[in-house]
Amino acid sequence: MANHASQQPADAPLLIVPVMSPKLPTAESLLPYLQRIDVSRIYSNFGPLVHELEVRLGRLLMVPAGGLTLASSGTAALVGAVLASVGRATAGRPLALMPGYTFVATAVAAEQCGFRPFLSDVDPETWMLDPVRLLGDTRLEEVGVVIPVAPYGIAVPQAPWRDFHARTGIPVVIDGAASFEAICADPAMYLGDVPMVMSFHATKSFASGEGGAVVCEDTLLVGRAIQALNFGFYGSRHSRAPSINGKLSEYHAAVGLAELDGWEAKSTAFAQAAALYRRKFAEADLDDRLLVAPDVCSSYVLFRCRNVEESARVQRRLQDDGIEFRLWYGTGLHRHEHFADCRRDDLSVTERIAPCILGLPMAIDLGEAIVDRVLAQLVEALAEG
Hints:
- This protein is an alpha/beta fold and 385 residues long.
- It is built from 14 helices and ten strands.
- It has helices at 27-40, 48-61, 74-85, 105-112, 131-134, 158-168, 180-185, 187-190, 219-228, 250-261, 263-283, 308-320, 348-353, 368-383; strands at 68-71, 95-99, 116-120, 143-146, 174-175, 196-199, 212-215, 290-291, 302-304, 357-359.
């Protein structure tokens, strides 16, 4: 992303500021891995680059050998983890309980496993499902799997959900899509016997363009996830379990390996961009409304509006100045046409926060002029109130 000036001549074309400008490894850094593909002539189906990436990530996350497998996307990884944990939905337990406040991929993955999403509200402070609150709910008798979500990469601790599973017998799969950094910082807190899924989509801080992973200390479960991601094959070419084709290609593994090679530098650049936001927003006395790394995934910058009316004013000002923004999770899963008829609890917290958490522009090469431009529009919008 270029460092655009905050003031433009009146007759100059509006310079659009993208909400996210991902930066993945360069062609030069990919070349050694691509040349290895040329030599091996293996392009998919658990090739050597995929194996190397699994080993390196497993060591970084301190999981046992065989405790991590890669997938073609985060959504595919979630499908594989659900199928490995519980299989497809049954008539007696047709529901997948999940937060109403999440990206639609959570619901899509559950549906691909035959489950119908059952939407529960999130805690107003953590933006996550509360396992203690769910205990004792008689509707759990219809739930085949619970899918807690790590909102914006705020990682989900293992212990409460391990206890929930022990007390209810209901399998749990954690959708930790953007939580790679938080998990790296404290693997013991966030990894264990409850499977956890990550996304390596280009919009995530650690990215392979497209991809994902299932991580679990239960290596037998990871083996079942491998089977679920490979047509039901495991040790033979006989399909023996519910499955999809969700394997990571060697090309995406090459991107992932090059990304790991440059991860320290990329992390530093993200941290500098987050620090710039914090400094500028503190100068404007708005730092209490800002969420950036390390509190969320480095690829997110979130601004918390006080209410829907304020959010609408902010959105209008940003749009008029050509500054892109996102409601990353929309206004709740139940607002998507396809999932509008899903069974759900009262979603008053989701209804309150979903329209008010705005994603602002982020990039590892974000310039001061861009942050000044974003902040100027926020200040003007808030003054209108």
